[in-house]
Design brief:
By secondary structure, this protein is α+β, with helices and mostly antiparallel strands. It has 2 domains: 171 residues, no CATH class; 94 residues, no CATH class. The protein is 52% helix and 24% strand. It has an 8-stranded antiparallel sheet, with no helix packed on it. Helix 1 packs antiparallel against helix 2 and helix 2 runs antiparallel to helix 3. The radius of gyration is 23 Å and the shape is elongated.
């Protein structure tokens, strides 16, 4: 990637893009492995992009350092706001998912330090993965459930990030070591994407400008949808699986960085042929 940047751009731009490419590579592999993008990459990248645009105003297609910095700041704000709107709209439309299990399925909730491990059938995940917001709740319709030494039959457990309600009794999860039983149905809260993606798109905008923001969202959404559809077709997806969006935003950003001008010329030719 460093060699490709050096060959494709004059040296002032190449130096700035080396910083950007470094951030993109880190964000991609951390997000694939841990489903997070660190603030050092996103917030730090946004600051680095604004500074780079001030030092190399050609990044924002201007000769004025001040204008370049302002454009980078506005593009970063646009990136954050665009995905924030998508995040909130996605929460309203797809904020929960109901899964009717094939039959009575054993489950366990077991404390591990400040978090807990939640196992439902063959699915295993961290408890904190389900609760991005304080108001999120997870419903577990159970044939039977055991909370420490208390047994409940035909009960629906209503979980929040820090408490559980069973038969009108609310218990704090900090006071519970283990919950187990047999589940029939689960309703899980979910987000359209993580907030790290919002900040990552802001960093992309700070380095590449507002057009790159819109292109990265389009190209990243298209690439992520195709990958998700492929995994569904080959039967590799499970109900608790997550698809990191950061790597696809990164792919869209790199595509814009190398081929953005060519894409614009092609697009103009399509919508306004000579």
């Amino acid at each position: 990637m460093f060699f490709a940047v050096w060959r494709a751009f004059p040296w002032p731009l190449a130096l700035a893009y080396w910083v950007f490419v470094s951030l993109v590579i880190i964000a991609t592999f951390v997000d694939f492995e841990h489903f997070i993008i660190p603030d050092q990459v996103t917030i730090g990248g946004t600051i680095a992009g604004i500074v780079a645009s001030f030092l190399v105003p050609e990044l924002m297609n201007t000769e004025s350092r001040l204008a370049a910095a302002v454009r980078a700041l506005l593009a970063a704000a646009l990136g954050y706001i665009v995905l924030l709107l998508v995040l909130e709209a996605g929460k309203l439309a797809f904020g929960k998912k109901r899964i009717r299990l094939d039959g009575p399925t054993p489950f366990t909730w077991k404390r591990h330090g400040d978090d807990a491990e939640f196992v439902l059938g063959a699915e295993q995940s961290l408890w904190s993965d389900y609760f991005a917001r304080e108001k999120d709740r997870l419903l577990l319709k159970c044939e039977d459930a055991k909370i420490d030494n208390h047994v409940h039959n035909k009960v629906t457990l209503e979980f929040y990030y820090n408490r559980v309600t069973a038969e009108d009794q609310t218990l704090m999860l900090d006071d519970i070591n283990e919950i187990s039983g047999t589940a029939l149905e689960v309703v899980i809260p979910r987000e359209a994407m993580g907030r790290g993606d919002l900040k990552f798109l802001a960093a992309i905008g700070a380095f590449l400008g507002w057009r790159a923001v819109l292109f990265s969202v389009f190209a990243g959404s298209l690439a992520g949808s195709l990958v998700g559809l492929f995994t569904l077709l080959v039967g590799k997806r499970v109900w608790s699986a997550k698809l990191p969006f950061g790597p696809y935003l990164a792919l869209g950003a790199l595509a814009w960085m190398f081929f953005g001008d060519a894409f614009v010329r092609w697009y103009i030719g399509v919508v306004s042929p000579p």
